[in-house]
Amino acid sequence: MVDDPSLVLAAVDQVPFILAVCEGPDLRVLTLSAATRSLLAGREFSGRPIGEVLSDLAGQQFVDAYHDVYRTGEPINGREWRAHITAPDGSVHEMFANFTITPWNVGGERRGVIGIGFDVTEAVRQRQAAAERTAHLERRYAESREVITALQRELLPAGLPVLPGAQLAASYLVAEADTAAGGDWFDAVAQRDGRIALIVGDVVGHGVTASGVMGQLRAVLQDRLEEGAGIVEALTAADRFAARVPAAHATTVALVVLDPVSGEVAYCTAGHPAPLVVGPTGATRYLPPTDGAPLGTGGAFPVRHDNLGPGDLLLLYSDGILERPGRDHPSSAAELAQVAADSAAGRALHDPAATPVERVCSQTVELLVRAAGHTDDITLLAVQRVPVVADLALELPAQPGELRAARQRLGEWLGQIGATAEDAFALQHAVGELLANAVEHAGTAPEATVTLDATLNPAGVVLVSITDGGQWREPQQQVNRGRGLAMAAQLVSMLKVDHDATGTVARVAKPLSRPARLLDLSAAGPVVAADGEPPFRIVEQAGGDETRVRVEGPLDLSTAALARRELLRRSRGGTIPMTVDLSGVTHLSSAGVSALHHIAGQHATQDAPLVLDAAPGTPAQVILALVALLPAR
Description:
The chain has 16 helices and 27 strands. The chain is α+β, with helices and mostly antiparallel strands. The strands form 6 sheets. Strands 13-12-15-16-7-23 form a 6-stranded mixed β-sheet, covered by helices on one side. A 5-stranded antiparallel β-sheet has the order 2-1-5-4-3. A hairpin with a 5-residue loop joins strand 8 and strand 9. 40% of the residues are buried.
């Protein structure tokens, strides 16, 4: 028998796995094994509550599990739980762990809790890598999910509108227990009066029939709401459809109409769970249900009213997130509220680049499902009231050297309103062409200026106008000229140019949208705000051969002539074969395209090969494919 307790602690310290012994109702840490201390380097732990020691895991359910075991006396086991742990230098380390948390009883009384865990990160990574290489898994995925993917992508919205005063996000997770497409859906409809209609619905059953009915119901509601119908009118139209189609019987719908300016909310829960509100301080509340009837059951659709304050987040969801195995409704609803609040505040998994609504729609699902699984589809749709970004108004001298700063400022503004990188790219290139034309039209007088005005309207459409006070010039029928307007027109949804004796006004319009996440597929890439452009330069590739170069920075009105001269100098006027990598070009205007056409023409005349290349998805590749200088990829 060992009489010295320090010997016992020394032995515990040497176990080659994660071990934490916590004592008392506050679960103050009595000891940690050396392996645990290594994982939590630099932290004070002796005598401190476990929630304080693991403060960075507070929103990831580990601390809650310790307290649940102490309270209930029932052990908790976890398998391959993902955790984000903050290192002393502020970096975040991702690991996966298997663990068991058990009560520590002495003499029939609860003394504390003991946690034992194993870092299985390497095994998980290896399995994931192996799975990606396994042809069997690829075939299984293709066979079981191909129809689901096609149906969901066709029947669910392609994206969510980007609107002033509101940020939106949505996610959809297909049921584990059913490989057939489901009947959940979501939608966000920008109405004519500036309000937003938000919908989450659930058709009873699974399979192609349920998905088909879901698509038809979504179309009915979308049509009525886009025409300005109110909640009762829209649901009544859907109800008439459900009464005629047996498969639509008892479909549940939550329909919310939000005024993002005032925060006023009107809503109806037609047999559907009531939405959740998460405040900016983390406080949560469920809206009272309206006691509306499911569609096709002959009931009414009463409407209730509420208000969202600045920063409030509203979450609509399908009942699959509540009806998880082993969870009753009250505890599941409380858990949803807590995890949503943690995700919104960034206290759960580390993803600082995501907006609160994006974190809620992705992390909430992952954190809740990993503990209990799920047997039904899960749909989440979130909206948060945010400050309205002021319109952009620029007045700049009519000089080519001003174009780069104007594009950069437009990109910054687009990032502020929530545009995706793809939409920002299209608008910056289209507006860049119009600005270049305006600079030419404005003349060479020192006082000549060009103005740019941009706004995001309540329908989620960016409207940009470029005005100059110069004299209109008819487009010239010249080789390598006149591409600017054609390129701009292909990048936006509307382009209109008006001119009179006082000058020219060019207008473009483009709807903005952000992709929703179909969570059983690869997630869409993160949205990247526009950054400043690097300086223009031509760099020789490895080996010192001046005919193998990489072009970096903007290739526009201010740099095109320099690029043409320098590239032709290196190829001796097009007489020597040359390879030009354009992957580093950040902006390729029609002036740049014209310069490349001129260089290509010189090489063709001299019968010397010219290779223009750009990596897929880069600005140069997109534009050159658009003008047929490169094949589309």
